Amino acid sequence: MKNGMLVPTLKKILLGTAAILTAVGRIAAQRGCTLSAQGGDDAPQLLRAVRSCDTTRIPKGTTLNIATRMNMTGLSNKKIQLEGTLRFNPDLPYWTGNGFFIPFQTQITFWLLGGENIVLTGGGTLDGAGQQQMYSLRISQWSMVNGPEWTNLINEANGVVYNNIRITAVSNSSHNPANTDGWNVYRSNDVTIKNSVIVNGDDCVAFKPNATNVLVENLDCTGSHGISVGSLGQFPGMFDIVQNVTAHNIKMSDAQNGARIKAWAGQNVGSGIVQNITFSNFVVSNVDHPVVIDQCYMTSASECAQFPSNTFIEDIVFRNISGVSSGSTVASLNCSPDGRCTNIEVDDLNLSAPSGPPDFECSNVVLSGDSAELFPECSET
Ligand SMILES: *[C@@H]1O[C@H](CO)[C@@H](O)[C@H](O)[C@H]1NC(C)=O
Ligand SMILES: *[C@@H]1O[C@H](CO)[C@@H](O)[C@H](O)[C@H]1NC(C)=O
Ligand SMILES: *[C@@H]1O[C@H](CO)[C@@H](O)[C@H](O)[C@H]1NC(C)=O
Ligand SMILES: *[C@@H]1O[C@H](CO)[C@@H](O)[C@H](O)[C@H]1NC(C)=O
Ligand SMILES: *[C@@H]1O[C@H](CO)[C@@H](O)[C@H](O)[C@H]1NC(C)=O
Ligand SMILES: *[C@@H]1O[C@H](CO)[C@@H](O)[C@H](O)[C@H]1NC(C)=O
Ligand SMILES: *[C@@H]1O[C@H](CO)[C@@H](O)[C@H](O)[C@H]1NC(C)=O
Fold first, then answer.
1. Is 34 inside a domain boundary?
2. Model confidence over 285-307: pLDDT tens digits?
3. For strand 183-186 and strand 153-155, is the pairing parallel, antiparallel, or unpaired?
């Protein structure tokens, strides 16, 4: 009997020791966690790991299945080493009903990542819906239901670096627009997006209201709407700021725009300021409008003349932008009347049209820089 008692006691002690060792192991392992696919929805384990580990690694060859939305906000000093793949489960009815609603421009998203000093790197793949085809399916279906945008939104974050990311989000329909933004930066400061390849159908990167101190470099964008500031000043009562943005070394192919700033004018819109934006070293190919300021966005010329934009645009540089457009207009710098654009500089523009002379359009702006003479109506001299 005594022995019989002893054995369980020993077992308990041994188990207790094992538990302590496991706990110690967990503490030691806390700094770096490596995940493997669990065969179901990997979102909960990824969320847990990112909350409790400093570095969460998804190794090469590993595909995590994300079947439920992930709220990764309030993080600080975290690293996600994505060498493998995050695959969003292609369950349209689920995502349509379960995204996080973003009131701004009524977008939804299903991965919220926010906080301070977050690094998402590793050269892996952030895979919208698994296979490219599945993603395409998602996009065309969302377009069909006239649904919300697909977007990677950097929202209310500070100190975020994206490096070595590939985004493939192709809509194969020639009829429906696909709102497949690469990145939207919104109410965020100190953001870097670099060394990435994007094949998509909407803005490659967009700087939305209150994107400040953003560096975008070494991107290869195909099929997009360009690198865009805005649209800004859309909502009455809101004041939008985009300040200190540099976008350079950008290859832009088969796109609607290259480097673009767009702000609303008219009645019942908002206001704001776009200041200190530099677009440099762009190479464009088959791009509808390689260089754009549209300060009468979504506003007729007559309404824009009567109600100029209250989103002021200042200290903008377009430098070393070369290549071939898709049509005759290679640049269109159209500001609202009444001096709403100031200190706009154009340097080393080497843009041509596929055939015939290129058009450099402009209005209501005085340009400086060595390419200003390309815009006869708007050059200082
Ligand atoms: C995300 O999580 C944070 C912190 O846990 C919470 O405050 C926030 O409301 C959540 N956001 C959404 C949209 O659920
Ligand atoms: C969509 O187009 C891409 C690129 O051409 C192709 O790889 C993919 O198979 C197409 N997907 C569908 C569903 O047709
Ligand atoms: C942008 O920041 C300014 C200054 O902090 C603030 O007044 C404004 O409401 C912000 N706008 C948005 C859209 O968040
Ligand atoms: C923009 O950069 C200047 C110069 O570094 C700095 O003084 C200013 O605070 C920055 N603006 C924002 C919104 O951080
Ligand atoms: C303009 O923005 C860049 C970052 O894009 C920053 O380095 C620079 O200091 C800013 N310049 C001014 C005058 O604010
Ligand atoms: C102009 O941009 C191209 C393409 O990014 C780059 O190779 C070249 O070095 C740039 N020229 C200058 C003078 O910076
Ligand atoms: C402008 O681009 C063409 C090719 O599109 C190139 O041949 C030419 O050297 C470039 N000019 C300058 C001044 O860089």
1. no
2. 999 999 999 999 999 999 999 99
3. parallel
